[in-house]
Amino acid sequence: MLPAAREPAAGDSWGIIACLCTVLWHLPAVPALNRTGDPGPGPSIQKTYDLTRYLEHQLRTLAGTYLNYLGPPFNEPDFNPPRLGAETLPRATVNLEVWRSLNDKLRLTQNYEAYSHLLCHLRGLNRQAAAAELRRSLAHFCTSLQGLLGSIAGVMAALGYPLPQPLPGAEPAWAPGPAHSDFLQKMDDFWLLKELQTWLWRSAKDFNRLKKKMQPPAAAVTLHLEAHGF
Amino acid sequence: MDAASCLRRRSPRVAGESVKMTSNFRWFLPTFTLLCLLSRVSGQRKGAPRDLKCTTNNLRAWDCSWKAPSGAGRSALYEVCIENRSPPCYRSGKTNTKIPTLLPGDHEITINPLHDSGSSLSRFTLNEKDVSFIPDPPEILDLSADFPASTLHLKWTDRGSVFPHHSRVIWEIKVLRKDSMEVVKVVTHNTTLNGVDTVHHWSWASDMPLECATHSVGLRCYVDDPHFSGRKEWSDWSPLKNVSWSTDSPGKVFPQDKVILVGSDITFCCVTQEKVSSAQIGYAKCPLIHLDGENVAIRIHNISVSEDSGTNVVFTTKENIYGTVIFAGYPPDIPQKLNCETVDLRGIICTWDPGRPTALVGPRNTSYTLSESFSGKYVKFKRAEALINESYQLLFQILPDQELYNFTLTAHNPLGQSQARILVNVTERVYPRTPSSIKVKDINATAVTLSWHLPGNFAKIKLLCQVEINKMNSVQELRNVTIAGADGSRYLAAVGRLHPYTVYTFRVRCATEPFWKWSRWSDEKQYLTTEAIPSKGPDTWREWRSDGKNLIIYWKPLPVSEANGKILFYNVSCSSDEKTQSFSEIPDPQHKAEMQLDKNDYIISVVAKNSAGASPPSKIASMEIPNDDLRTEQAVGTGRGILLTWGHDPNATCDYVVKWCNASQAEPCLMDWRKVPANSTEAVIESDQFRPGVRYHFFLYGCRNQGYQLLRSVIGYIEELAPIVAPNFTVEDTSADSILVKWEDIPVEELRGFLRGYLFYFEKGERDTSKMRGLESGRPDVKVKNITDTSQKTLRIADLQGRTSYHLVLRAYTSGGLGPGKSMFVVTKENSVGLIIAILIPVAVAVLVGVVTSILCYRKREWIKETFYPDIPNPENCKALQFQKGICEGNSGLKTLEMNPCTPNNVEVLETRTAVPKIEDTEIVSPVAERPEESSPEADPESQVVVSYCPPVVEEEVPNPGADEGGGASQVIYIDVQSMYQPQARPEEELETDPAAGAGAAAGYKPQMHLPVTPAAEDAAAEDGADKSAGYRPQASVRAWNLASPDSPRSTDSNSEAVSFGSPCSINSRQFLIPPKDEDSPKSGGGGWSFTNFFQNKPND
Known about the structure:
B: 5-stranded mixed sheet; glycoprotein (chain A)
């Protein structure tokens, strides 16, 4: 025997409609649905991460062009020279345990400092390049890298970390002295591009890690409805 | 002993001849003398000094030595005395002594050991020729290395103060490389000793970088003193000096960052402590050349041009990579197309083309220096990269008070330099900038002031400018203006001879004097000049209305060139002696005015006004002088216009006027008019309005006594065309031999030319006969009448045939051609007399014949009756047929009996014993397919005897399969139609002659038309198998009739006959028993004749 559906009384249906209207009326006031507040560092970390990936892609093209400009053997795929004279470049490679143990502030600071250095070196590279087209590409990449630096600074500011002190000199001693031969200069250029690539990989990891860390737990949005009279 | 005698013997001779010796022989002589001396000395007795030998290293003193006598002690003292010298003797404690240089010639020298009692005195004869000149080894002051340039610099002194004379010195320098002292270079170097110590330099560029290995240099000399007659020898080698490179860096490759010429050979080396495994330049691997230690080198021949960043040379060790970059390029080409000019006389811009690329960029790129020799100033040009598709240029500031500049452009790069020169007078090389800011200002309606800005310091020179004036629909005009130059100011030029109220476009370009180049044209500036009063009054004409009371004044709008502005309105006034009437301010689009005038003489004046003022009035008299002897003439034009001529009228007081209108136009007749100068006697009237084929009326007015008189009236066409319609004609009258045709005029509009005549065509012909087409095509039967009298409107065509249809066509023609024709058919009337005669004669003849016949018939009526209608006997009286009376009575209605009373019929007796299947039909109802064996005639036991009687009362029976089964006797016989006229025995004959046919016939039922059993018939049967199998349709096949059927009795009889009447006839009815298409033919029991039957017969065939 199926229970017969009870016909709701006319007064009941009006009550449901009124309830729905009230809910709709209060929806704009629910804080969880409002995006007007401070979103936190999450979006800017995501943006920085995206920018890092974009720069990785951009660098791939630029490095190909630049290594061809340097000529063989620099453009040979298995060319792996010792790191001569490139000691002023910040090293991206780090022990995995050390990298894991870095706190957010240190992580961001290292990134910021590294890119500050690399940007200066890259500008020096741009000045030496003899091909106009290459100079344009380098200048474009420098602008992008400057943007990444700004993004990192933004993330640090959002997290309340102070920016590292500017370098003692306006630019590192990149300008080659008279003893710095063209070949060593090319080696430095090679290493600069290599370190830059490694740093971009590392930064992508850094920001991915940071992003995950900053992501709030999947919060269930509970609508607290003040059901007046229901 | 022999030696002593030799010396004694030869010496005086030698001494005597020595003076005459040649220089070559001089060398030989001392040697020989020395040998003799030594022989003599050695030949002396034991105990005396011997082997006196003298050398010199500076030609100032001789260093003589001898061998001590045997047994002489260490403390021996020798007294050396020289004959005829002061001091004559020298004492020496050693076996050598220095003696001053002796004069040429033999000198006797005695050496006496003083404290040696056992020794005796020795005498020697000494000559300069016996002395050897061996300079001291030279001393290297310094050996330095320029490592970047791989060059050794050697410095030494010649110690010239030591030698007494000026003499030539030959230096021999040797360069050794590596620890193994490989000689890499030996070179001689000539200098002169000049009495003072001089330091000499020698440089050597190594093909291998000096860093690669230790380099050593040694030096010796040979002094060629012309005053010394003795033997001259090379000095000993100086001590070697070394140059080597030391560094604490782990490894380096040399040369570093070197720029070399494309195509050179070059050696690279790697200075390292590690073992080098490979070396490469660019992509190419190179064989290693081992140097000292682990150092290696590679040698590159004919190096190719480098890329922008240079060519990399890399040495690879186990741990490291060492390398260098080499830049192979070219020295700068001589700058091409060097040109210097100025745009503003403030700076000189020199441009050039660098020529061949150097392949060197960045810091090694070519730098240019533009130097001016008079002022000593220069400017430099340096770019990091080579310019592509861009001119090289340098700006040199012009110096005050200097006009002549001598420029030298030097191109320089690490591989060399080149130069180009140019001498310019700057005032002659001005290429002004483009004039800008063009402005126009009015002076008056026909002149403007043009001003423009031209930057530059032209204060000392003149400018030549060109103004281009463009007017709409007009050729452009160029005007040259020479202006005194100024320093950067605006320039003005007045431009006159312009038209008022006209849009002009101006642009300017400038050059300087003397001319070098025009500047580019400035931007265009458009300008409308101001209005001026109209230069002429409008062209006027007047027309009287037909009522003679109203006069219409016409005038033409002024052309733009005369209106000088926008015409606002016209003022018209007419004045006579008595009164003046005027119309003011008739707005522009209206170009006529009508006024009511009496018959007084009026002068009408028209004035056009624009914003600048009124034009001079155009005056025209209203009076029209009548002309009585006027007649209208005809004229035809040339296609574009029409020529009017007239006689010269010396009394003409004003211009002639030709007016014209469309002849068919209503009054007032005025399309346009034209004024012709009074001295003209002809005018070609042309107008865009003229159309060919339209009649125009031209009126020529002369001017006389202040009035116009119509002189000529001409109607004409610009070009005549053919009429477009046919003349409308009717037949007025028709007789038996003539037709009167009448036609109407063609309207002028449709005539399209002056009518020249008509063409009338006629010929015999009916309407709708195709013969009528092309009637006017000149066929001989077409008659044509050409009517050239255009006033003629009727035509009678005579000599026609009566009662005949004629085709008439009438066409009009002009000089332009023949118009279309109108055609008509007319039948001429009959000739009435002939007609009457033609009717009356036959009637009369008929009546006459009738009367004669009637009379003859009446007279011969008995004979006629006998002949044509005899008495008919009563058949009942016929005795001959009485034995058959019963039968005859029963069939009294039969016609045959009537037609041939009492005539015995033929009796046909058919032999019943003879099996003639063709005339039997016993099997008609027995389907062959069911009982084929029964179809055999032998199997048929019952054969009938059919006897036909006269007349045989045969009732035609339709064979009934059911009734006839069982083989009952048939009352019907079937014969061929033709057999009626053939002997009746034919079937027997046939059987004899054609047994095959008989066999075939015996196969079964053979209808009246047996289908042929021939291959052709077989095919037909096969084709129509479906139909055949459906049932019996033997007679349906027409083809079967035409084929000679073997079953047909006639088929074998007359082979020549193609047609066989196969359908049998009833013997008494003589009708075809089975018509060719008899749909209702009796059914043969469902397949009595069938395709299977056909097959059944085939084996018998």
